[in-house]
Amino acid sequence: MAGSRGVRRVVRWGLRHGVMRQMVRRQARSGELGGRLLTDPAVIAEPYPFYEELRERGRIVDTGLALATVDHAVASEMLRSPDFGTGGRMPENLPGFARTALRFGGDWALGPAQPPSMLASDPPDHTRYRKLVTRAFSAKKVAALRTRTEGIAEELLDGMARADGPSDIAADFAALLPATVIAEMLGAPLDMRDQFLAWGEGAALSLDVGLSYREFRRSERDIDALHAWMLGHFERIRRELGEDILSSLVAAHGEEALSEDELSSIAMLLLAAGFETTVNLISNGAALLLEHPDQAELLRAEPQHWGTAIDEMLRYESPVQRTGRVAYRDAELDGVPVKRGQFVIAHLGGANRDPNVFADPLRFDVTRADAHKHLAFSQGIHFCIGAALARMEGEVALRALVERFPDMRAAGTPVRRRTKLLRGYATVPVTLDRASVPA
After folding, report:
1. Average pLDDT of the chain?
2. 134, 246 Cβ separation under 8 angstroms
3. What is the pLDDT of residues 420-434, one digit of tens each?
4. What is the phi-psi region of residue 186: left when phi exceeds 0, alpha when psi lies from -120 to 50, beta otherwise?
């Protein structure tokens, strides 16, 4: 039985990642930029010069794997257009020759890139899901969370101040703050926080293309474990409904009622959306301020710039580097014909450094007036539902950090996370001013 499950997993890996892994590697070996952006460690570590190569080749470029763009206007047009959707991610859309293998492979893990996730759904399903969830991320709800977020930030910074030796902003602060906030929003126990982070790391792998079999197996195991925990959590909620977002989703009835898979998928996406982008925003922002101490000093002296600073961090180091859409019908982007079924990749990290939109785009400037024009949260119907929460948490966290530790300095080289689509740090070691230890 176990052997049969293993064979089915291999089939799923082959359909989802194995074939694509070989195609991408072949493209990379031939020097094609599309393949290198997805596989070359040096390019993944520092993709921005390669985005500029892509920009020089045109506003829309055929990379041999898909059409690609780093053009801000083209990316925005595609993300807003009803002619393009997310259906290209669904294994159900595989060509006919693969359907038998698909059935043999068994059930796919209920991950963030798998229907019924909002990331992989289009209207009308997407409209129904988003309507149910939007109320939890309203401006009023986010504003109400600010005081609690400030308290969490202070608690975590107190702990860092008491610790001996260097601290790690990524692990000790950037990860724990948003994980605590979203756990409380979902009515989950705080002692699950570290487990959520571990499961979330595995689930985040599923967003990348061409995973190794080992990575794919870890991703499925973590997603399945999180799904099983969620199903148990729903039962606890049904016995005692609370004021949290999951209670409102579980209690939905009539046309708004959700299946167990829909509930779990939305809950897992909320968990991921609640901390994945924000973890990367905080760690990226902290690293940028360490690299640009003059900008940190400006923010301490003129804190009115913090809102703009967060947008500049999102622009300069986009937590989500790319997103893709499939053409649902013959269409055009910037006058370039796109045939039905063609896949288009918008490299958000490149679009956010488009010199036609951002003057001197390689300069990090926390007072940049047009920083808000970035596409870090996407555009259109898939605009990040947790954007306001991420901005608030990022501002609270980073402002508290630089005000509490004005003499903070790097204690080693920051290490990037292994994910390719998501860009952030696994470690950001720092030395803190121990005079800031609380009484």
Report:
1. 87
2. no
3. 889 999 999 999 975
4. alpha
CB-side neighbour CA atoms (13 Å) of 376: 27
HSE-CB for 42 with a 13 A CA cutoff: 4
Q: Helices 293-301 and 387-404 sit at what angle, rounded to 10 degrees?
A: 90
Instruction: List for the chain the helix, strand, coil content (%; round to 5).
Output: 60, 10, 30
Q: Are 424 and 416 in contact (CB under 8 A)?
A: yes
Please state, in angstroms and rounded to a whole number, the distance separating the CA atoms of residues 31 and 33: 6
Strands 409-410 and 84-85: unpaired
Report DSSP state, residue 361.
T
The type of residue at 362 is L
Cβ-count burial of 232 within 10 angstroms (0-12 exposed, 13-18 middle, 19+ buried)?
A: exposed
| Separation CA 391–CA 306 (nearest Å) | 10
213-239 and 2-13 are packed helices; what angle lies between their axes, rounded to 10 degrees?
110
Closest CA relative to residue 281, chosen from 318, 321, 330 = 318
Highest-pLDDT range among 26-30, 91-95, 197-201, 422-426: 422-426
> How big is the CA angle at 209 (ends 76 and 73), to the nearest 5 degrees?
10
Render 194-209 in DSSP notation, one character per residue: HHHHHHHHHHHHTTSS
Is the Cβ–Cβ distance between 62 and 97 less than 8 Å? no
Q: Does 88 have pLDDT greater than 70?
A: no
pLDDT tens-place string over residues 95-129:
444 445 445 455 666 777 777 888 888 888 888 88
- Listed as own residue / partner, the contacts of 289-295 with beta carbons closer than 8 Å and 24 or more positions apart are 289/398, 289/402, 290/408, 290/409, 290/410, 290/428, 290/430, 291/364, 292/364, 295/364, 295/365, 295/366
DSSP characters over 52-96: HHHHHH-SSEE-SSSEEE--HHHHHHHHH-TTEESGGG-GGGS-G
What is the amino acid identity at position 221?
Answer: R
Give the Cα separation of 236 and 141 in Å (integer). 24
DSSP string, 371-402: GGG--TT--GGGS-TTHHHHHHHHHHHHHHHH
SS3 320: strand
How far, in whole angstroms, is CA 101 from its chain's centroid? Answer: 30
Burial of 191 from C-beta contacts in 10 A (0-12 / 13-18 / 19+): exposed
What pTM does this model have?
0.91
